[in-house]
């Protein structure tokens, strides 16, 4: 998409008709507590790719309870809400006091092309949470959320906007990160055409910078553990609960990753949640060794964040420029790559990971993957107050 067409993207019509949140579908109603009477449904929040609403109800005991619904369209929409359900289930299991309770994902009875994610409703104020309280909950998420198989990745596709992100299980963090970055550039090239400038810089990132900054994390006696990350933790996906003042994390797109990956959007000065939050976070979760590389790893992870932005917002060259700026800094700083660092430190040069091709997205059996991760539990969570 050309830069002059950017306004058309930002002002484009939502894929989901507003009619889809003007009533409560029978399959949604079936997921609510027995005896629920719906008293209203009203648009709540905004999205480029979905419709969202608050469902107001009266329960059998007379109490007034609200629920939140997100509605998406088509096969991609099904993947989006299914991935969010599994992601938010994992997040809620780790930090129940700081996240809505997922209830179900499913498909409308009235329209097989309309899919939904349903959770409890939390009344929130749109403001950045207190840094100390926020980072304590993020550290708790990372401490409790451990990869079930010791690998990096996730059990179902999870989405950034309408783009499925790389989630294939891999043995090393360098391998996973490299494959994820290659897939991102592949999407950009497919959707926006070849970009020799961007590709030339990325080739050096793959050759020099990624091995230099990520291989030392898991060699020379050092080790990191794949941990659950929210995956999109910027100010747009965090608010504050009105009644308690507790931070609330939502809209997760999870993977099991190096926990420092989570801090990527906290680096740019343009973001409300910034570097002071990262500094506070490390009071609750130790910096990975080599500690002296942390700031440069932060820059590398932020590069992936900006490359993702360029992929899901085609034609927005701001993101491309952010990427080029970061890549120049990292390439200039690490011209000798991992081998030069190992020689300087007196460490034996460790072999890199095996070459990994990104998992193909076509034909992914979303339902099968969801059933695998939730067994023996139901796709719906039992309602409890």
Report on this model:
- With 385 residues, the protein is an alpha+beta fold.
- The protein contains eleven helices and twelve strands.
- The chain has helices at 6-10, 26-29, 74-94, 131-144, 173-192, 196-214, 275-281, 294-312, 317-333, 337-345, 366-374, and strands at residues 37-43, 51-58, 64-73, 102-107, 114-120, 124-125, 159-160, 163-164, 227-229, 238-241, 247-249, 255-257.
- The strands form four sheets. Strands 1-2-3-5-4 form a five-stranded antiparallel β-sheet. Strands 6-10-11 form a three-stranded antiparallel β-sheet. The protein has a two-stranded antiparallel ribbon with strand order 7-8.
- The chain is globular, with a radius of gyration of 21 Å.
- Residues 1-9 and 357-385 have low confidence and may be disordered.
Descriptive labels:
5-stranded antiparallel β-sheet, alpha+beta, 385 residues
Q: In terms of per-residue confidence, which ranges show pLDDT below 50 for 5 or more consecutive residues?
A: 1-9, 357-385
**Helical stretch tally:** 11
Number of strands: 12
Largest sheet: 5 strands, antiparallel
Query: Whole-Å distance between the termini?
Result: 47 Å
> What is the CA-based Rg, rounded?
21 Å
Record the SSE blueprint.
Layout: H1 6-10, H2 26-29, E1 37-43, E2 51-58, E3 64-73, H3 74-94, E4 102-107, E5 114-120, E6 124-125, H4 131-144, E7 159-160, E8 163-164, H5 173-192, H6 196-214, E9 227-229, E10 238-241, E11 247-249, E12 255-257, H7 275-281, H8 294-312, H9 317-333, H10 337-345, H11 366-374
Antiparallel strand pairs: 1-2, 2-3, 3-5, 4-5, 6-10, 7-8, 9-12, 10-11
């Amino acid at each position: 998409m050309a830069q002059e067409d950017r306004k058309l993207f930002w002002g484009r019509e939502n894929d989901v008709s507003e009619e889809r949140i003007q009533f409560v579908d029978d399959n949604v109603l079936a997921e609510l507590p027995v005896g629920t009477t719906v008293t209203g449904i009203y648009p709540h929040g905004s999205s480029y790719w979905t419709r969202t609403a608050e469902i107001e109800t009266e329960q059998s005991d007379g109490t007034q309870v609200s629920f939140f619904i997100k509605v998406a369209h088509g096969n991609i929409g099904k993947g989006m809400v299914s991935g969010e359900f599994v992601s938010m289930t994992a997040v809620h299991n780790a930090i129940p006091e700081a996240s809505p309770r997922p209830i179900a994902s499913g498909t409308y009875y009235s329209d097989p092309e309309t899919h939904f994610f349903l959770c409890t409703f939390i009344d929130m104020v749109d403001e950045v949470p207190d840094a100390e309280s926020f980072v304590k909950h993020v550290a708790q998420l990372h401490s409790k959320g451990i990869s079930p198989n010791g690998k990096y990745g996730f059990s179902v596709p999870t989405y950034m906007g309408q783009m499925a992100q790389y989630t294939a299980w891999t043995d090393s963090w360098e391998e996973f990160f490299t494959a994820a970055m290659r897939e991102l550039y592949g999407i950009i090239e497919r959707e926006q055409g070849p970009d020799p400038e961007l590709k030339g810089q990325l080739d050096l990132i793959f050759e020099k910078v990624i091995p230099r900054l990520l291989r030392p994390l898991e060699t020379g006696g050092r080790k990191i553990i794949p941990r659950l990350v929210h995956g999109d933790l910027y100010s747009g996906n965090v608010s504050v609960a009105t009644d308690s003042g507790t931070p609330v994390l939502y809209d997760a797109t999870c993977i099991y990753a190096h926990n420092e990956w989570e801090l990527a959007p906290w680096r740019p000065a343009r973001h409300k949640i910034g570097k002071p939050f990262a500094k506070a976070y490390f009071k609750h979760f130790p910096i990975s060794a080599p500690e002296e590389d942390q700031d440069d790893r932060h820059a590398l992870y932020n590069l992936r964040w900006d490359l993702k932005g360029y992929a899901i917002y085609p034609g927005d060259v701001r993101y491309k420029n952010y990427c080029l700026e970061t890549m120049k800094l990292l390439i200039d700083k690490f011209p000798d790559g991992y081998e030069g660092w190992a020689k300087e430190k007196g460490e034996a040069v460790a072999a890199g990971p095996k070459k990994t091709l990104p998992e193909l997205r076509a034909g992914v059996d979303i339902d099968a993957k969801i059933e695998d991760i939730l067994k023996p539990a139901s796709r719906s969570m039992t309602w409890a107050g």
